[in-house]
Amino acid sequence: MTFNGKLLIRVYGKSLFAHRETQAPITAKRLLFLLLFPPLYMLLELVNWICLGLDDICFSSYRHLDVQDPVFIVGFPRSGSTFLHRLLAKDAAQFTSMKLWEILFAPSILQKKFWLMVGAWDRKLGNPLSTFVLAFEKWQFKEVRKIHKIGLFEMEEDEIILLHIFSSAFLNFMFPFDDLRPLVNFDTQCSARQRRQIMTFYKRCIQRHLYVFGKQKHFLSKNPAFSSKIQSLGETFPTAKVICIVRNPLEAIPSAINWIAYGFNTFNRFDNQCAQAQRLLDWIAHWYPYPLEQLEPWPNHRKMIVNYTHLIHEPATLVSDLYDCLGFDLSDRFRTMLADEATRARHYTSQHRYSLSQFGMSAEQIVTDFQEIFTRFDFPHAESQGVESHGNTGHAECFTKNIP
């Protein structure tokens, strides 16, 4: 059985009965999550797994679909992967990606077809359902959208689909325990059997997606968490192409802490939030060097290392180089879209800036810890006058007093 029920029972039990020994003490917010999680999660997965089982009866040919040259965008969090992902996805003639509604509520072919039918009827009736959903999202995701544009109709990290087998790195936000550390250090800490089971489930999810949204298209995915899955990606998808984005750690790390802290605070309240964010940051520090090391022996037509600065300042040139490197055809239509995007990029200025010091860190510490990255990419060693971000909501402030 692919579903990791033992891990679910262990971390949920620890949350209830051994919370004093963990980094997630019981608070009102935490208790509410722990009460709501089991019935909602079990109901969702009961429906999902029934539908996944029916796929093997009604649409069994999906298993024979060839996942042709899938493209995986990896790299340390907050390094421009979302920007590149959504830019490449505009080339809809070649690429297809999962959106959040599909990842959460439609991993099966049966569910995808059902919700697409609902969407068609909604459009015929004047979009009342989608209008309600968009309004709800605007209210519900008001804070997180200051950091990352999220929504059911937006493309998202399909690492989330592994929640359906309780094997996603995102579970660390809900259950910040050492039990889940192997999911963050996937290739090096998960057993070969566990890696094979998880990646087989993931491949089946991609095949189901292609069955509905384009059997001849290239699957396009972006997941910072897949930075720890390079070996597994190569084993599961022999023709996979990987794009690794590298950003100056002095810029990426404070932005990543801001995002990580938000994820933690969605389900928890910590006595020292910066310490908790730093703890997970220590876990994912190897997401910088690991993909670079693993991609070294890969052939050039299956990999590309992208400098964040080049991506942001010259997206059209970067994508053109990327297509040449990876062997994709750049259509005139998409070339025009890239030119428009390049114009917008030149006129964009972020309004959100903050420094490492507000997270209890120093530029010297970062340069020392990531010396290899600074040397290889010749990144400046000095912190700029404020670091660009996608939004600072204050969730990473260091609290040293107890929080009720």
UniProtKB/TrEMBL annotation:
Residue ranges crossing the lipid bilayer per the database entry: 31-50
Residue span of region Disordered: 385-404
Keyword Ubl conjugation: no
SUPFAM superfamilies linked: P-loop containing nucleoside triphosphate hydrolases (SSF52540)
Top-rank lineage group of the source organism: Bacteria
Keywords, alphabetical: Membrane, Transmembrane, Transmembrane helix
Pfam families: Sulfotransfer_3
Protein's recorded name: Sulfotransferase family protein
The species this protein was found in: candidate division KSB3 bacterium
